[in-house]
Design a protein that fits this description.
Length: about 450
């Protein structure tokens, strides 16, 4: 492990956890790459860190049913605005089947201070519901506003209560592809009439978080937490670069903590045998990535560098990216059966967490299709994995969908009646993981 960050910047480190030993001819190498950022400046109201934020509020007709949703959205947006540090660039968008600027207007961003925060909150009084839902238009307007800012941290917060019914799925997908890499975005669904895959898909594509806020009264607390998290970001557009020797193939790259996101198809070529995988913006935090590479089979006694993982921050125009930290993935061939068959605890844990997310999603889909047997098997496996890995939060959510007979064995019965909010919460949070237990 090596550190290269400047003393004034957050310090990054890369740690690699793996069993490097392979049997003769063995080819697949698994490693958990842990990236940690520490020592950044403490966020204060008077220490702007170069952030620009656009809040997108669903104002479609359904937001008035019940009226608590629209009222909660206004209050939550006001709470988020109050959380902005002085100097942060910001704007508010009202989203229906079109996108409209609420504040400051005229295609620009405001600069947060006491006056603009008060003006923005006053403008929120004019928010009213009516019209349809075309989320791509909201994101395109946010993208245009954020591109006009020189702030390195560019972020969106999106709230919706319904399905994207007034826009073709392909249009939203193309919009997300265009916005990816230009800004990050957290997405929230309020109530229970929205589509989980749409909201989680937005967050995944734009490297943000997704969640359900079933009770509109909780929106203010959730928006405040999201904005505080954004205000804590200090380094933007960080990339995980993987370099591999000749003959080595990357099978997949997944973020596995704090949530599961498959980054394999997000690779950007970066020279001979090197590719960059986006990780978004960072504050004081730690994330884990599961890297699997396939190496050429070799004889006992040989060893090789299977991959080099380098964390990079964009340099100034015309300059090369800055190296923040680096770690190595190795392969060593041995005839020691115990060494070559041992599974690294971190690899085993996060492989199980990824399987847990998949089992929940497949089980809920089977339940929706009326496949009782398939749903029982998949959700039973999810209960087993949640229990064995110590994922207590997910275990509690599963217990609202199934009756647990034996958690260790994965024996469950489907509940006859499940509240929509409970099922949607389980699906939305299925990708959230827990850190590996320390020995």
């Amino acid at each position: 492990m090596a550190n290269f960050a400047k003393p004034s910047a957050p310090r990054f480190s890369v740690d690699v956890y793996q069993n490097e030993f392979l049997p003769e001819g063995g080819r697949d190498v698994h490693a958990i790459v842990t990236v940690t950022s520490t020592g950044g400046a403490i966020a204060t109201r008077t220490s702007a860190q170069g952030a620009a934020v656009v809040i997108m509020v669903d104002c479609s007709g359904s937001m008035e049913y019940p009226p608590e949703k629209m009222r909660g959205a206004r209050e939550a947006t006001a709470a988020a605005i109050d959380t902005l540090r002085d100097g942060t660039a910001f704007a508010v968008i009202a989203g229906t089947h079109v996108a409209k600027e609420v504040y400051p207007g005229q295609g620009r961003l405001a600069t947060a201070d006491a006056t603009t925060r008060a003006q923005a909150k006053e403008a929120l009084r004019g928010l009213s519901s009516g019209g349809g839902t075309a989320i791509g238009t909201w994101l395109r307007l946010a993208d245009g506003l954020l591109r006009g800012s020189t702030a390195p941290i560019r972020h969106g917060i999106l709230l919706t209560d319904g399905r994207n019914e007034h826009e073709e799925p392909a249009v939203l997908r193309a919009t997300l592809d265009a916005c990816a890499g230009r800004f990050t975005c957290d997405a929230r669904g309020v109530g229970t009439d929205w589509e989980v895959k749409e909201v989680t898909g937005i967050a995944s594509a734009l490297l943000g978080t997704a969640d359900i806020v079933a009770d509109p009264a909780r929106l203010s607390a959730d928006f405040t937490d999201m904005m505080e998290n954004v205000m804590g970001k200090e380094v933007a557009d960080v990339a995980l670069r993987l370099w591999t020797p000749v003959g080595v193939e990357i099978q997949y790259v997944k973020q596995v903590s704090p949530a599961v996101h498959d980054l394999t198809d997000r690779r950007i070529e970066a020279g001979p045998r090197a590719g960059d995988y986006p990780t978004g913006s960072w504050g004081d935090e730690s994330r884990e990535y599961h890297v699997c590479v396939r190496v050429p089979g070799a004889a006992v006694g040989l060893e090789m560098l299977a991959a080099r993982a380098t964390l990079l921050m964009p340099g100034a125009p015309g300059e090369a990216p800055a190296v923040l930290a680096q770690g190595l993935v190795r392969a060593v061939w041995t005839d020691d059966l115990a060494a070559s068959t041992a599974i690294n605890p971190q690899v085993a844990h996060y492989t199980g967490q990824a399987e847990l997310a998949q089992a929940i999603q497949q089980g809920l889909e089977a339940r929706k299709m009326g496949d009782v047997g398939g749903a029982t098997a998949k959700l039973g496996r999810a209960v087993q994995l949640a229990s064995s890995s110590g994922n207590a939060d997910t275990a509690k959510l599963l217990a609202k969908v199934v009756d647990v007979v034996d958690a260790a064995a994965g024996t469950v019965r489907l509940k006859a009646k499940v509240a929509d909010a409970d099922e949607m919460t389980l699906e939305t949070r299925s990708t959230q993981t827990v850190r590996v237990k320390k020995a």
